[in-house]
Design goal:
This protein has 262 residues and is an alpha+beta fold. It has one domain. The protein has nine helices and twelve strands. Helix 5 packs across helix 6. It is globular, with a radius of gyration of 18 Å. The model has no long low-confidence stretch (mean pLDDT 90).
């Protein structure tokens, strides 16, 4: 393992092989009983059925353990496991929503017993990883630009500062549709017109929407899993949104013939 500066603690350490998206996601997406068990990975340039993962030497062992303990391990236990269990959605299905519309239901994470702090920590840890390192899979992944928010988020992840409530919100949605429950993608821009309003991330049925800035509207803050009174967690059919995102990537990706029917 190479020596270098850990991007989180900023100390010279022996660096570990860090994953952009958790290794457990690949395992849950892989079907060992299938004739072609490996998941399909797609970037804006190429699509492949492969066992490759997005990883590089970025963090020291202590910081890897910090990420696992404070968010990743918990979230990987809440996603759709690919074998008929989706713990986060299952819990919401038997809970009482404090607000609902024909498309979306909102629940109190605090009342339902969901650790929303770990959900938020995980989302910011992945977003931050996309900012501080250039990851590659069939070419470079889309860069995350945090600007002045990068350092407050790093300090929060390291444990030397509180959650940056004044400049960050994290919205969590458990997806009811099969497409989203069987899909994952690293952070991408969430746009409002020509303006980048934040970043979205999908991990096998759990959508994370992170807004950044000092002027986040109250209508967004009240559904943050950390800032809101109820520690809100949403439930919705996300298929249209997921298909739209993949269709945008599909426009430029080289798709092998055996994958085009997918």
């Amino acid at each position: 393992m190479p020596l270098g500066v850990c991007k989180l603690c900023l100390l010279d350490k022996e660096l570990q092989e860090s994953h952009y998206l958790p290794r457990a996601l690949y395992a849950k997406t892989r079907d060992p009983k299938a004739k072609k068990p490996n998941p399909v990975l797609m970037t804006r340039s190429e699509a492949q059925r492969t066992q490759k993962q997005i990883k590089d030497y970025v963090l020291c062992s202590q910081c890897e353990q910090l990420f696992s303990r404070n968010g990743e391990r918990y979230v990987m236990g809440q996603v759709d496991n690919g074998r008929g269990r989706f713990p986060l959605l299952n819990r919401l299905n038997v809970a009482m929503a404090f607000r609902s519309t024909p498309k979306t239901a909102a629940f109190s994470g605090a009342a339902v017993g969901i650790d929303t702090e770990k959900l938020a920590y995980f989302a910011l840890s992945v977003l931050w990883r996309g900012c501080v390192h250039q990851w590659n899979l069939f070419g470079p992944t889309t860069a995350v630009i945090l600007g002045v928010h990068e350092e407050p988020i790093r300090k929060y992840l390291l444990g030397s500062a509180q959650f940056p409530t004044d400049i960050v919100t994290v919205q969590v949605t458990a997806c009811t549709d099969e497409v989203s429950r069987n899909s994952s993608f690293p952070p991408g821009e969430a746009r409002r017109g020509s303006h980048v309003a934040g970043y979205i991330l999908l991990t096998r049925g759990i959508y994370f929407l992170v807004h950044l800035g000092a002027h986040i509207p109250d209508r967004i803050r009240k559904f943050c899993c950390i800032n809101s009174v109820q520690k809100s967690v949403l439930m919705s059919d996300c298929e249209a949104k997921t298909r739209e995102i993949f269709a945008d990537i599909y426009k430029t990706a080289r798709i092998p013939p055996d994958l085009q029917r997918l």
